[in-house]
Every structure is written in structure tokens, then in C-alpha cells.
Request: fold
Amino acid sequence: MKRFDQKRMPRSGLTHGLGVMLVIALLTGCDAHGEAESASTPPPPEVDVATVLVEPVTLRETFTGRVASPQTVQVRPRVSGYIDEVAFEEGELVEAGDLLFRIDPRPYEARVQAAKASLAQAQSQRRLTDVEADRSRQLIQKHMISQEQHDQRQAAALNARAQQAEAEAALTSAELDLQYTRVTAPVAGRTGRAMITQGNLASADQSVLTTLVSMDPLYVYFDSNETEAQGTQTLMARDEPLTLNIGLTGETGFPHQGRLDFVDNQINADTGTLRYRAVLPNPDGLFRPGQFARVEMPVAHLEQAVLVNRKAVLANQDRRFVYVVGNDATVTPRQVELGREVGELVVIRDGLKAGERVIVNGTQKVFAPGMPVTPNPVAMREPNAGNDIATRS
Reply:
């Protein structure tokens, strides 16, 4: 066996072998680099995508109003006298006809007795004059009395009838005065404090004994500007009752409902507003006259409103935009013009159309226009979310 002798190996063959080995090494290195680069490229980010909604929406606006009582009464006595009794608890609810104050009735009882006596006297006098008048008619026919005597007796009878009627009226007046010594509630409602207490003099038609306000239902008065008023008038023209949502100061949302029952007949030229009134049931006495209340009223109705979730809308200085996901799963920013918020949704006035998809979750994963994403279809609104509660955006 011959020993391998490098000295006998041709130089060209050695050079060729080294070249082959270098090519193999380069190829192997390129393959390894390609596999490493492929392994480090992340997949497109996963984002939640929802389809734009197009549906009818009733838009509402929030106003500040004040609660008022339909009936506010200053209770005054109709007769003068000293207060014998205060028959109510201050601040309590009373029904119409309940006794509030009692004025000393004894002077008025005496007047009633005197009026009855005067009436009895007038009735007696009338009976006498009626008898004389009847006899006079018989005698005049027989020419037994003069015409003058006959006329006097007839006049006396008429005068007696008038005196009896006057006595009856005086008795009625005295009985009314006696009845007025019982000061009762003219309407059902809540009483104020007693302004005149027992033992003090109350003057007829002058002294304020207490105040009384009706409590159920109550009114809520509020003002709307001309633009909103025009939209509400359009809704009212549909002859459908307008239900208003009402909330007290400090309450979350609008837990109470009322009904619009009055719109003023002219716009206030000084403020440019129109006065509205809502009827608010108050069976539990939760509301009180004078309170501030927030009123949510329908101001417009859109038959085909374009809606997206608020989370889909992003801000770039004074501009608003959304990320639209195309059929090729790439992202395109789209400037939009916003309308009012409707629950968790917002009305898009311009910039989107039905069928388009926008990113509602995961917008922070988008770094550049045109980048691919992995869309995860979701609903545009949460289940059972309403679509008719709107505020100005």
C-alpha cells in the first residue's frame, strides 16, 4: 500500500477541495441564518374586530330642571278669632278636608243662634202678613175696604217675605262663619310649619296659618335651547307620548320616569330657550318641591344611524379616527366625525359605512398603517345594552 504523499498531490486539486469546503460552509451558514430569522418573526397581532352597526336610534339630551308642586296653598283663615287648636304635625302628609286649625267657635255659635231667632221672627211676621193679604183680597172684592188699605196689606206681605229671605241669608252666613272656624286642608299634600300657634289671634284673609303643597304627582320644569326644541317638536308631532327619564341630584343615572305634558307657547327672547314641563309620579314622597333634577328628553330620531363602540374611537390632537380592518386583514386608519353617544356606542356622522369592520380592542398593538393583524370577531355592543340613551358628545 502506497503512503499518501502530499508532495505528489497537484496544487490545482488542493485549491479545488478548499473551495468546495468553503462553499459548503457558506451554504450551511446561510441556512442557519435563514432558519433563525424565520423563527424570530412574530405572527400578526390578534385584535378584537366588530362590524359597524346601522340601526334606528332615538337621541336624548340631558337638561337641568327644578321640581315644583302643582298646587301650593297659603292657608289663611276666613274668619277672625283666637286659635284654639293646631290639629296637625308640622311637615306631615294630610288629605283634603283634614282639620288643620280650630278657631274659637263660641262667638260664631252665638251669631248662629241670633240669626235663627231673627229668622223665626221674620217667618212669624210673614205668616201674619200673608193672612192679612189673603183677607184683604176677599174684602176688596166685596168693597168692604179701600183700595189703599188693600195695597198696604199686599206690600206688607211682600216686605215680610223679603225680611224672611234676608234672615235666611244671615243665618246661612253665620253658619258658614261657624264652619270656617274649622280650618281644613284645601288639597292633599304636605304641611309646612304652623305660623300661628294656639292662643294667638288670626285675622280673616290676612294671617298665613301654614303652607300646603301637593306632593303626588309633581311637576319638573326645565328649559331647552331652540335647536333641541325643534327636534323635540318634530317628535311630538308624531302624536306619541314622550317618556322622560329623571334623576335627582346625587343619583346615578335616571332611575325615575315622567311624562311630558306641557310645552310653552313661545321661546324666551332673553335666553333663547323654551320651557317644558314633565309630570312626575311621587307616591313615596321621594321628591320635594324646589329640588333640582336632571331630565333626559328625546330630541331626535335617526332611522339609519352608524354606530361603533366608544372603545374603537381614538384621538389624534383634535381629530378622531378608527382602525378599519380590510378583507386582507390589514389595518387602515380612518378619520371620522362623531355625533352623540348612545349608551356604550357613539354615532358616526361621517367616515364609516355599513359592513366595515373596526378594531374595538387591541388598538395599542397597531404600530403602522397597512400592517397585518389577526382579527377576532366580537359584538359591537354588550348583550342587553340599550340603544336609546344619548348624550351630547
